[in-house]
Design brief:
The strands form six sheets. The chain has a nine-stranded parallel beta barrel. The two termini are about 40 Å apart. The chain is globular and about 65 Å long. By secondary structure, it is mainly beta. Strand 3 and strand 4 form a beta hairpin. It has three helices and 42 strands.
Length: about 525
């Protein structure tokens, strides 16, 4: 079984199988280190921990022989590759700095002391234990290692968390210094449990857990009310470069869980992100104004969008413009949430070149979810977004594209929601090319595709090829509103609805068990429908 070495750390490695299977293999395989079996898995992306730094290893992968009762795999062929783990200058155990790890004593000062004392290429290590802490600040050229059984547990008292000012004028009053963000604006927020600002060459590795502990605090009480400052994330990276996060569980977040902000070259590998289904605004992974982001082998189950790709609101686009671009999301599983992979709505800086492939969307409200609105601005160009080789199960509405999203205090205003043409100006957003291909959807409820563009600025191009959709029986469908906008009815069992679109291409699309028998297209300028079949 062939594979590629994706990233090498000082004490671990991540590999990805060279396979077209979606997220996982039909049968188990084995991973060997120097001829010793260390891991059995089915997942296409796996990470091996427990290695030593500055050491050469041979890693091998072998298919499991399921004909054998013990599945020893001895009869299979092993594919092998060599690698050398990264250099480590020193290993600093936080217990040597006074951390107790008893889940009660505040370990913030001890862990922060270890971080501050860590030299270039050093590692700060949390061994097994529960480390009760408020915000920690990581720095460049270090590894933060949460060992097996280690839990970094968030302090439940918001008054113990430092505050990050949203925006501060520079001394010469010619510029601004931005430290925090809240839903696309540079607003003052509490520092996150794990925070890094302007850090480079930073690794955060597991297999331990970062637990925001929000369920035992008041973060989720009146969540849209600012109390002292806005709610923190659990892992927040601001203006960082070359950051890798591997095999860490991140859970129970006060708000967005993992939030890279104005970052470049980040990798998120084999993460498990989990928040309760009723927890407010607890998106899983939200890259905002970031470039070159890789997300592999990650499983997300949360109370809002699993992933939301963003680039801020109008002020940040106007004054600190940065496009979110070059994003790869592959071999991931999104299990619960409002959207599996969302673009927007805070995307005033634009989003381009997004590739989502070989992923499972399971039980989310929506699969591909694009959302924007008037007021995001002319730099809000959402373009070149491709979803392919996806398997959806129990996703109510697989594809939604909405240019009337009713977010923000003025979201229900006539300016945002009026469906008559408005002037095209500097506040008008753009949706360019959106593509979905080779996608299987079972257990659909409301609709397959619902796309609603602006009348003054229609969606440029929608392409859906080789799509197989199967609806739930009528008795099991619950009417829902697929796009969050005013003056739009609920849907149940609908195939394709598109309005205000320049070009719509549907090719080899099979829709089974829908209530309608043909697409409903309104103000679609050019349509190419080939091989579109409705079946009972």
């Amino acid at each position: 079984m062939k594979f590629e070495i994706i990233e090498v750390f000082n004490r671990s490695v991540t590999i990805e199988l060279d396979s077209e299977a979606i997220f996982e293999q039909p049968e188990s395989f084995f991973v060997y280190i120097d001829g010793k079996k260390v891991l059995e898995s089915r997942q296409n992306v796996v990470s091996v921990t427990g290695l030593l730094p500055d050491t050469k290893y041979v890693i091998g992968v072998e298919s499991c022989d399921t004909s054998s009762d013990n599945c020893s795999g001895e009869s299979g062929k092993i594919y092998e590759k060599e690698f050398t783990t990264k250099h480590e200058s020193v290993l600093l155990d936080v217990r040597a700095f006074g951390a107790k790890g008893d889940g009660v004593t505040s370990d913030t000062a001890a862990i922060q002391a270890a971080i501050c004392a860590c030299p270039k290429d050093g590692t700060v290590y949390l061994p097994e234990g529960v480390y009760y802490s408020t915000a920690l600040f990581l720095k460049s050229d270090m590894t933060f290692w949460l060992g097996d059984g280690a839990v970094l547990l968030g302090d439940t008292d918001r008054n113990h968390y430092p505050i990050l000012p949203g925006m501060t004028r520079t001394t010469d009053e010619k510029d601004e210094y931005n430290l925090s963000s809240w839903e696309g604006n540079p607003l003052t927020s509490f520092a996150s449990l794990v925070t890094a600002i302007d850090a480079e060459n930073l690794d955060i590795i597991g297999p331990g857990t970062i637990d925001g502990n929000a369920q035992n605090s008041d973060w989720w009480v009146n969540p849209k009310v600012k109390r002292v400052a806005w709610r923190p994330n659990t892992l927040y990276l601001a203006r960082c470069r070359n950051v890798r996060v591997q095999k860490v569980t991140v859970q129970n977040s006060p708000s967005w869980t993992v939030h890279p902000y104005y970052c470049d070259n980040c990798a998120f590998l084999n993460l498990f992100i989990h928040n309760p289904s009723d927890s407010p605004n607890t998106d899983g992974l939200d890259p905002e104004s970031c470039k070159d982001v890789l997300v592999l082998g990650t499983v997300i189950s949360v109370g809002d969008d699993c992933m939301a790709i963003k680039s801020g609101k109008y002020y940040m686009s106007l004054m600190h413009h940065k496009v979110t671009e070059n994003m790869i999301i592959r071999n991931c599983k999104f299990e619960r949430g409002h959207g599996s992979v969302t673009v927007g709505s805070e995307a005033a800086g634009g989003v381009r070149n997004v590739r989502v492939s070989q992923c499972i969307f399971d039980g989310t409200d929506r699969g591909l979810r694009i959302k924007t609105r008037r007021g995001r601005g002319e730099r809000s160009i959402l373009d070149d977004i491709v979803f392919e080789n996806i398997r959806m199960s129990g996703v109510h509405m697989p594809f939604t594209v909405n240019m009337f999203y009713f977010c923000d205090p003025d979201g229900h205003s006539d300016y945002v929601q009026n469906q008559n043409p408005a002037p095209v100006d500097e506040m008008t957003p753009v949706i360019g090319s959106i593509t979905g291909r080779n996608i299987n959807c079972k257990g659909v409820s409301a609709c397959m595709l619902c796309a609603f563009g602006l009348p003054e600025k229609p969606i440029e191009k929608l392409v859906f090829e080789n799509i197989d959709v199967e609806f739930l029986p009528e008795s099991e469908r619950v009417p829902e509103r697929p796009v969050m906008m005013d003056n739009f009815d609920e849907m149940s069992g609908r195939g394709v609805f598109a309005r205000n679109v320049k070009k719509l291409i549907l090719s080899d699309v099979v829709i089974k068990g829908s209530a309608d028998k043909e697409p409903e297209l309104i103000d679609v300028e050019e349509k190419k429908l080939s091989g579109v079949r409705y079946e009972a």
